[in-house]
Specification:
Length: 398
């Protein structure tokens, strides 16, 4: 798992530095971004790219590495303002805890990282930031995250033997590429203040890039158990008319408004596996492809005849699906599609739901349900707080 070739390490540095020769060594530690006067260097970007690729935290790439480092600067600044600082002992313990799931001691983890060209300080900074941030959001939002007894009852009804829960949602998907992110965050903040379902639906028609925009963003009845696991507690905690905090996914921000909720007498089964197809390529080619296919099986022959199209079909546990994809699959029935176009590049990707495979649910304890609700709310509040920190920060690219 912790393996990256030397050639790839050198290539990554070359991409970041942008050339060859002795002069480049002098510029390696120059600032490429400043976040409220806190510098991010070329070297840090190259280190973060390697780190992300090794741990598959992200798909890699210079821009994502920069975005990750910008968020780290904002998180550490928030920790300092809250007078939160790790002791050396706490940091070592956190680093050891990070290494444990990979079946490595801390020393072995540091050795593996060094072989792959990653400094110990890079690892220390990464772990310290995330540990501090958890303490920041826990202190800031713990009192606001406790679910009420009625909210726990509703959540248990959706996961236990009391029957199932169905929800009516309206979605708005805002385009949020790096160039659009600030405007998207401001728009999402405004949309979050809407009280009227009709007004929210009208904004979906005007602003959303989801295919549901033609219907005002309104989705059909959905079993709560068909939602991504991380989203269920968030939706369970809403009352009709309320809107989720902005959910940030890759190149988009998503909001849901709860229109209605209904309890069913039968038990709603758990989704054990979701099979879906993803087709990437030029927007025009995908629109044409969408008109020619009826099932996932049709995609194989289509991708073979068009070299511009890239097809992958996945069968995954719901909680293992990338959040961006999971949120798009919510509104799809079997063999339905969702196309998301990136206007700047005229590229698009199409998702088709091949199947949802269900299994019977097991009873869960009331404490477990409450903890799940609390964790999901803290995560949602933390994401919103980070978006606020970013919108207020002075960020400059050099």
């Amino acid at each position: 798992m912790l393996k990256l070739s030397v050639h790839k390490f050198v290539a990554t540095l070359a991409i970041i530095i942008g050339g060859t020769g002795p002069v480049l060594a002098q510029s390696l530690f120059d600032s490429v971004i400043s976040v409220d006067r806190a510098a991010i260097t070329r070297y840090e970007v190259s280190q973060r790219i390697l780190f992300m690729e090794i741990f598959k935290d992200l798909e890699g790439g210079e821009q994502k590495a920069k975005e990750s480092l910008i968020e780290d600067r904002l998180k550490m600044a928030a920790a300092r303002r809250a007078s939160i600082m790790l002791s050396e002992q706490d940091l070592i313990e956190s680093m050891s805890n990070f290494a444990a799931p990979f079946n490595r001691s801390l020393n072995k983890m540091l050795e593996d990282l060094a072989v792959n060209g990653i400094d110990e300080q890079t690892f220390r900074d990464y772990v310290e930031t995330r540990t501090n941030w958890r303490r920041v959001v826990t202190r800031r939002f713990a009192s606001r995250s406790n679910p009420t007894e009625s909210e726990i009852d509703r959540a248990m009804a959706s996961t236990g033997t009391q029957g199932g829960i169905r929800v009516l949602l309206t979605e708005i998907v805002l385009p949020a590429s790096p160039d659009q992110l600030t405007n998207a965050q401001q728009t999402a903040k405004r949309l979050g203040r809407i009280k009227s379902p009709n007004q929210f639906s009208e904004q979906a028609r005007l602003l959303s890039v989801s295919q549901s925009r033609g219907n005002g963003g309104k989705l059909d009845w959905i079993n709560l158990n068909d939602l991504p696991e991380s989203l269920r507690p968030i939706i369970s905690g809403l009352r009709p008319g309320q809107i989720t905090k902005p959910l940030k996914v890759e190149n988009a921000i998503v909001l849901f408004q709860l229109r209605d909720v209904a309890e069913t007498a039968s038990i709603a089964p758990e989704v054990s596996t979701i099979e879906y197809a993803q087709l990437l390529g030029p927007a025009s080619a995908l629109v044409t492809a969408n008109s020619k296919v009826d099932t996932c099986d049709d995609l194989y022959s289509l991708a073979k005849t068009d070299p511009l199209l890239e097809l992958s079909i996945q069968s995954q546990l719901p909680d293992k699906i990338d959040r961006t994809i999971a949120l798009r699959l919510i509104s799809l029935d079997k063999n339905e599609t969702s196309i998301l176009i990136t206007p700047e590049t005229d590229q698009a990707d199409m998702l088709m739901l091949c199947a949802r495979i269900y299994t019977a649910l097991e009873d869960v304890s009331r404490i477990q349900v409450a903890n799940n609700l609390r964790s999901a709310r803290i995560t949602s509040l933390a994401d919103s707080y980070l978006a606020e920190l970013r919108s207020n920060a002075k960020i400059f690219y050099h």
